[in-house]
Amino acid sequence: MPTSTQRSRRTPTRGPPASRPSSGCSSASPPPGSRCPVSEWRRTALGDVMALDLETVDVRDSGQYPVVGVLNRGRGLLYRQPIAGTETQYKTLNLIRPGQVVYSRLKAFEGAITVAPADLGDAFASQEFPTFSCGPALLPGYFRLLTTTPDLWDDLQNLSTGMGGRRERVKPADFLTLRIPLPPLAEQRRIVDVMAAVDAQIEALEAEVAAIATTLQRARDTCVRAIEAPTLSDLLDRIESGRSQVTDGDAWVPGAASILKVSAVQHGKFQPHEAKFVADAAGLPEIARVNVGDLLITRSNTPDRVGFAAVVDAVEPDTFMPDLVWRLVPKDSSLVRYLGHALASSEMRARVTGAASGTSMSMRKINKRSLGELRLPLMDEAQRGDYTALCDALSLTLAQLDSQVRSARSLRSAVLSGLLSQQVEIPESYDVLLDDALEVSA
Fold this sequence. Notes:
The protein has 442 residues and is α+β, with helices and mostly antiparallel strands. The protein has helices spanning 140-146, 150-159, 172-175, 185-221, 232-235, 336-343, 346-355, 368-372, 381-420, 433-441, and strands at residues 7-9, 42-45, 50-52, 55-58, 64-65, 68-70, 77-79, 83-84, 92-95, 101-103, 113-115, 124-125, 131-134, 179-182, 236-241, 258-260, 265-266, 269-270, 275-277, 295-298, 300-301, 309-311, 319-320, 325-330, 364-365. Strands 1-4-9-12 form a four-stranded antiparallel β-sheet, with no helix packed on it.
């Protein structure tokens, strides 16, 4: 932060409250072989364990201010590009300090609340983002876990009245009336430690996913080495269209007919459960039915999603294509998987988006003629086999890792819910905790 920036500290209206331990367990670790009794847990108003703590900074024309927002559902801070003092009409900004609780007064009903990370550098926000400091009875790391729970989101939503843009903001005074489950400090530390281990495993899995996704993209991009480049229409027998169908907007349920959302066709990946329930599928023609082995492509979507292509590896019965999705039917069925990977290459993505019409700020679309005129690199038969086998193997590995990440996130939710509801107690050996949590979530 520039040295020319002046800070003005507003003294909290209430200092962080002193802790009120009910036993030695509240301020120190319990003796070996013993645990803090569950009876020491209590539901406590936030105003008893944290206080409004605002530090305002005068905005100067010569200053640069890294601005942050707050993501919904307790997902942390949203980091934006720094703004110059001349680019904002705010006279002051709130300084966000490490370990502080911060929420969006306007978006609190969406669970836009978090705890600033310990390694946070200079960060500022408007007065719409009040900040609070935890007192000695509440660990910031423990409260950060609470910000990721639906219970806290529901409490914030109940404090926000009104609808849409007229929804009232959550006032700091009202926020401090919320009540949270509060164990002794020693138990808070144990919960934080356990969840940190779970989060570290999820982060490791996510890093593997990112690495495999990068490797897969590089493998797909090798198709540009092919010398032959026929037009896509030379390779296709036909392009089949989906159908428009009015739905109730309800999520798909097992055993029911459904129509895909456009988001079901992602970049080289098909998501069968991205679908909407259809009360009456009688009006949907058989040609719009989705089958395993279909090559689908989005013909219209937001600017960065038009032309997404994917092969259907699995699909529920009675699933149909929407009118914004096409099925590409090659003359040679052995080309389906090759085309699915080649269309997801960086080169073909650039060609498809370049041929789409529409502005960068609106829905873009591509017509059948423009799509058919695109030239697609075509390897010889032996190369195609090796290329497809490699990309298929990487895609399978990526799908398996994605499944592990989803399972790990579900397990995390079950573990945290069990700990906060006291259905799961942290054993002296953490090794058996996950097995206990799985039994609770079953």
